[in-house]
Sequence to fold (165 residues):
Amino acid sequence: MAKEKTLEDLFHDTLKDIYYAEKKILKALPKMKRAADSAELKAAFEKHHIQTQEQIERLQGVFDILGKSARGKTCDAIEGILAEGEEIMEEYKGTAALDAGLISSAQAVEHYEITRYGTLKRWALELGLKDAAKLLDETLKEESQTDSDLTKLADASVNQKAKAA
Ligand code: FE
Ligand code: FE
Ligand code: FE
Fold:
């Protein structure tokens, strides 16, 4: 018979999923910064790269709370989302639409992270892991803020530029 799986197992597995994803995102952000055309978008990617390092440390804090070692588990979703981002970088290189495409890729990443952190935070509360929930919530807020900053950047300039060319 299959071993009983619990909410705690789900929490731990999902934590490994987002840990893997964050480490991939950490590597992808400098590439996105290099690819970006506008100075503002480069700055946004740079800022989020620094935040991502802190987010990885927060996740290590959550593993500590669980008494588990920090280890990732392949996240097929982030592999796919980042592969689509690579495609945009290649196919739109040198065009006026590149930055709009990069923002759309980055927002796909943020939205994936928001679902993960939203779920993990709720499960942490359910499991009575208040300190873990606090760490997860800090990151959730950063991801949401990043998403809305990117929307503002797209609305303020990038989309019009892509359209005008
Ligand atoms: Fe993140
Ligand atoms: Fe995943
Ligand atoms: Fe993020």
